[in-house]
Design goal:
heterodimer, A: 153 residues, mainly beta, OB fold (Dihydrolipoamide Acetyltransferase, E2P), 2 helices, 7% helix, B: 670 residues, alpha+beta, Four Helix Bundle (Hemerythrin (Met), subunit A), six-stranded mixed beta sheet, 25 helices, 17% strand, globular
Chain lengths: 153, 670
């Protein structure tokens, strides 16, 4: 194992494979219903109670501007911690895939890949095991102040 | 009167002589004392005679010191010049008299001493930090206030323990900062350097004291207090010459001596003493511990439920499992009790505050305490000492009159301060009552006008005037005493109480006395909450902000032109707040007479919140929600309901400020 390799967690969303740095993942939960909250953004599912801790859950598809997924047996919630902000945030994925070892040095964007969403959300696009994997930047995706609630002036 | 003054000077000189050579005859001194008997006021006669009798015994020094204090006070009262004060300060300086005081002090209340060490260290560390911050942003004057307060607290503590050097230095620094606050002295490198010097000196004294205390020795620090105080006043009066002096004379005023623990054994008189080995734990860590124990309890019960379904599994380990349950429960109890301690210890410390303050002021005051066993969250108790001390001192200094005045008014010569604590409506109510002169509405008014807090033409109610004394920079005492300061007192108190999510109420009757009531939550982590339902949503409203919850009939509802929808509740029109509208959710009821009205109090104004129904009351552990929720100000926190669902706690004062969604939508459509 090379020292430059960084562990990533990959998951699927609408048949596309995405990955995020494993260091930011707090835990993976089986899907559960969330409690609605008022005045929130349209991509927010609600809040859940994980062993006494209250965590907001986001519909990642909507956050990225994709169409909704169909809930299945494999649907899970990945709970992550952002590097700049306190508190956890959860998001739904169609299924959790694998742990990937991504070479940091081979940082070349795949020119063939065209995202359906904001390029800012993408950290990198790599090819690994004959598959295209989109590495997401969750600090960008969830980092804005009004990620859960609409700002009230 | 001049005669008294000259006698006092003579006395102090004799006093000095006795101290220099302990075996020297005390005849001269006795003679002066006897002369004094003819001129001193009556109330001093007894201690004086006592002193004469005791002059050859071991207690003489102690009695003398007390006597000097008394005389000194009389001198001040009669507007004498401070010759004597200076004389005394000098004599103390020259004779290392301080060390005698230290040892005297250390035989006193151990509790108070460890508090002194703890808090002084805290303040010194905080000072370093704040001063650095101020240095970075000199225009931010809030730092000046913070620095001032820290010195003020150190001065107060040192004053109580008669640590004159420390008191003098912090007093000098405090003075300097007063000038800063008033804009007479502005931020400069000289100023910060001087303040840092002051902090260093206090630190040196602190270290020496701690060393002395722990090793039972009586070494003296080598800080030149007089020189420092002189420089301090020079700084204010003549900045230019201060500058030249500092620039030419580079020699350090103090040589910071390292205090090593392998001091010669011969120095150690009495055995080593150690400060109680308790330490503070950050609330964050404590909360984390309590939280994970909470998780453990939940986890345990879900395991218990699952095992219960397969009885045969349990068979072989029933004993172990019941033991496990016992341990988990025990852990939970211990973790919760970690937070709660009786308030009695803090009350006990106040006894001393009253005694010492009364002595200094020459008043006769007794402190009565009630409800010492009342338990309260530890983090609250920790932060309660300072505000209580301030208020007790205020009561002694400004509340209770001189014995003579009291008798004239037909009161008993002895003033009474009552300190009580009790549980009421899910909070802890701490009250400080005195039977002194009460608040003078007119004086407060005038002072507030002078200070620019209110305008001449403003008409204020009695309670509004009372509230004025809580404003920063307000002080009614005409003379600044070194006991209750210069009006930093009450605003510090209010800030401290508010940071504990408490409220402070003042009530006073002129001539009869004052009552300050503090209402505090039982713990910072748990509140009483009402669980309400609006449509499919459940929310929690903190019970502390709820006045009542009522159902009303149709005829109580009215629409007042220009004021919106109102509900008539016992002859008062209370604005109706449709929560579902503010939160943009669908509710089952839209008519106020169909649902439930929760009447809340926000800054003295009432609002009737329309909700579908009340689901129950519950003790609620407040969960912090992290940064992601910070933009929604109307959320006070999160909580787990009894059913295991997560719910949001509403901050009612912010909720009512939300714009009406319906109106917004209409505006958008137009």
């Amino acid at each position: 194992m090379n020292k430059k390799l960084i562990k990533h967690l990959s998951f699927s969303l609408l048949n596309e494979i995405y990955a995020i740095k494993i260091i930011q993942v707090k835990e993976i939960l089986a899907w559960r219903a969330s409690i609605d909250i008022p005045l929130c953004q349209e991509w927010v599912k609600g809040i859940i109670n994980i062993r006494g801790q209250i965590i907001p859950v986001v519909n990642l598809n909507r956050r990225l501007g994709l169409k909704d997924s169909v809930k299945s047996k494999t649907t899970c919630i990945i709970v992550v911690e952002l590097s700049q902000r306190d508190g956890f945030i959860g998001f739904e994925v169609d299924s959790v895939q694998d742990v990937l070892y991504v070479d940091k040095t081979s940082k070349e964007a795949n020119p063939l890949f065209e995202a359906d969403f904001d390029a800012e959300f993408i950290e990198n696009v790599i090819r690994l095991n004959e598959e295209t994997k989109v590495i997401l930047n969750i600090d960008k995706i969830f980092g804005q102040e009004d990620i859960i609630f609409k700002g009230v002036s | 009167m001049n005669h008294l003054q000259s006698l006092l000077i003579e006395l102090s000189q004799d006093f000095l002589m006795i101290n220099i050579s302990k075996e020297k005859s005390t005849d001269d001194f006795c003679e002066t004392l006897t002369k004094l008997q003819d001129v001193v006021p009556d109330e001093l006669l007894y201690p004086l005679q006592e002193c004469v009798q005791e002059v050859n015994t071991a207690e003489a020094l102690e009695t003398l010191e007390k006597l000097m204090d008394l005389l000194n006070q009389k001198c001040e009262e009669r507007d004498f010049t401070f010759v004597f004060e200076n004389e005394k300060a000098k004599s103390i300086e020259e004779m290392s008299f301080d060390t005698t005081i230290y040892s005297e002090v250390f035989s006193e209340d151990e509790d108070l001493i460890s508090t002194f060490f703890e808090e002084t260290l805290e303040n010194l560390e905080a000072l370093d930090l704040i001063l650095n911050l101020w240095d970075e942003t000199p225009e931010d004057l809030t730092y000046v206030n913070d620095i001032f307060r820290s010195f003020h607290t150190i001065k107060g503590m040192a004053g109580f323990l008669s640590l004159n050097d420390m008191e003098q230095i912090s007093h000098c620094l405090e003075d300097l900062l007063t000038h800063c606050r008033d804009g007479k002295v502005s931020h400069s490198n000289y100023l910060t350097a001087f303040l840092f010097d002051g902090i260093d000196f206090l630190r040196v004294m602190y270290d020496q004291l701690l060393f002395n205390y722990q090793n039972g020795v009586e070494d003296k620090h080598n800080v030149n207090v007089d020189d420092f105080v002189r420089k301090g006043s020079l700084f204010v009066s003549d900045f230019e010459s201060y500058k030249t002096e500092v620039n030419t004379k580079v020699e350090p005023i103090v040589e910071i001596r390292s205090i090593n623990n392998d001091a010669p054994v011969a120095q150690v008189k009495s055995g080593k003493r150690e400060i109680d080995d308790s330490f503070r734990v950050s609330t964050k860590k404590m909360d984390a511990l309590i939280d994970s124990i909470g998780e453990l309890v939940i986890n345990h019960s879900s395991i218990a439920n699952k095992i219960g379904l397969h009885k045969d599994v349990l068979k072989g380990m029933r004993d172990e499992f019941s033991q496990f349950k016992r341990i988990v429960n025990n852990l939970q109890n211990v973790s919760l009790s970690l937070r709660m301690i009786p308030i009695g210890n803090t009350f006990k410390k106040m006894n001393r505050v009253v005694r010492d303050t009364a002595n200094k002021l020459n008043k006769d005051i007794i402190l009565k305490t009630l409800g010492e066993q009342t338990e309260i969250d530890r983090s609250i108790v920790d932060n309660l000492y300072d505000p209580l001390m301030h208020m007790i001192r205020n009561a002694c200094d400004h509340g209770i009159e001189d014995p003579f005045d009291r008798e004239e008014m037909g009161k008993s010569a002895q003033g009474t301060i009552t300190l009580s604590a009790k549980h009421k409506d899910g909070c802890v109510v701490i009250a400080i009552e005195d039977d002194g002169k009460g608040l003078s509405l007119e004086k407060i008014r005038q002072k507030a006008i002078v200070n620019g807090l209110i305008q001449e033409e403003d008409s204020l109610s009695k309670s509004e005037i009372h509230q004025l004394i809580l404003k920063p920079g307000f002080s009614t005492a005409e003379t600044v005493t070194n006991l209750s300061g210069r009006g930093v007192g009450m605003d510090v108190v209010v800030q401290a109480i508010e940071s504990l999510r408490g409220i402070l109420l003042i009530d006073s009757q002129e001539g009869k006395g004052s009552r300050v009531e503090i209402r505090l939550p039982l713990t910072l982590a748990i509140i009483d909450g009402m669980v309400i339902r609006i449509g499919d949503h459940k929310f929690i409203i903190p019970t502390i902000s709820v006045r009542e919850s009522i159902k009303i009939s149709h005829d109580k509802y009215s629409h007042v032109l220009g004021r919106g929808e109102m509900i008539l509740i016992r002859e008062h029109l209370v604005p109706l707040v449709r929560c579902y509208d503010l939160l943009a959710i669908t509710s089952d009821v839209s008519n106020p007479w169909d649902g439930l009205l929760v009447v809340v109090d926000v800054d003295g104004h009432r609002y009737a919140l329309l909700v579908d129904e009340l689901l129950g009351k519950q003790e609620i552990v407040i969960k912090s929600l992290g940064d992601h929720f910070s933009v929604a100000k109307w959320i006070a926190g999160g909580a787990i309901l009894a059913c295991g669902d997560a719910a949001l706690i509403l901050d009612v004062s912010k909720l009512i400020q939300l714009p009406k969604q319906q109106l917004l939508d209409e505006a958008c459509n137009e």
